[in-house]
Amino acid sequence: MTDVERQPPELAEPHQVGSDWPLYASIGVVGGTYVLLLLGMLIADVVYLARSPAPDFSQEKSKIAAAQDALDDKTADPAAGDAVREEQPRRGWPVIGHIFAALADPKIQYSIKLTLVSCFFTAILSVMVAVPIGYALSRFDFPGRSLLDAVLDIPIVLPPLVVGLSLLMLFQLPGIEKASRFFVYQTPGVVLAQFMVAAAFAVRIMRASFDQIDTRLESVAMTLGCSRGQAFGRVVLPQARQGMLTAGTMAWARALGEFGPLLIFVGTTRMKTEVLSTTVYLEQSVANIQGAVAVSLIMVMAAVAVLVIARLWGSRTLTL
Prior knowledge:
Shape: globular
Distance between the termini: 61 Å
Number of helices: 17
Helix content: over 70%
Structural class: mainly alpha
C-alpha cells in the first residue's frame, strides 16, 4: 500500500473544481451576438421609420383618392404618382404614422387578409400531413424509410425559388396541366406554395414529438384489446397535442415569411395573389422604402403575437 493510499480521507488533497466562467462567457458571447443581431435588425427598422417624416392624415379624402388613383393607374406617368405622394404634408409620430398609413392602403389590407387566410389553411394542412408521416417515421421501420426521410428534407435545404420553379414545372406535366388554371398564378396557388415548404418543418416537429412518447403505452393499450389505430387515437394522439400545436405554429410562421415559391409560382399580382411578404418586395420595387419597412414591422408584430399566444396556450394545456 502506498503512502497516498494510507492517508485518511480528511488528509487527502481536495479536488480542484474548475471555474464555470469560461462556459458562461462562451454562451454569452456566441448566443448574445446572434440575439443582438436580431434585435439590431428590428431596431434599425424602427429607427428608419422614426427618421422619416410621418404621413399627415388630415388631408381631404379627395386628395388621398387622387393620389391613390395616380399610383394605381398603370397607364399614368409614374412621376405623377410620386409627385402627388410628395405633395402630401407629413407630420405626427413617424413610426405609428407609417404603420397606420400602410394599414389604410386597400392593397395592403387585401394582402393582410390573404396572408391570414392562406397561413391558416397552410397550418391546418401541414399538421394533417405531418401527423401520419411523423408517426410512421417514428414507429415503423419499412423499406425506403431512409429515402423518404431524405426526400422530406428537400424543401428545407433547397432554395425557395427552386421549390417554386419545381411546382411550376409540375403543373406542366401531361394530365396535371389542366389543373394549372386553378393554381398557377391563382389565389389557391398561394396556399399550395406555402404548404410545400411549411409542411416539411411540421413533419420534423411531429416526428420529434412522437419519438418522445413512450412506446410502452401503446403496447399496453394493444395488450388490453385496442387495435393499433385505437391505441394511436386514444393514447398517442392526446399526448401529442403540444407537438401538434408547435407544428401548426411553426407552419403558420413559415408560411407568413414565404416569398420565393410565391414569386415564381403565383406571381405578385396586386389584389389577387399579393401577400405581405410580396408586398414588401413590391413596395421596395417602386421606391416606397417607408411602406416596405412598415409592412415588415407589421409582419414582425403578427409573428410575435401568434408565437406568444401559441406558447401561452401550450403552457396552459400542459398545466391542465
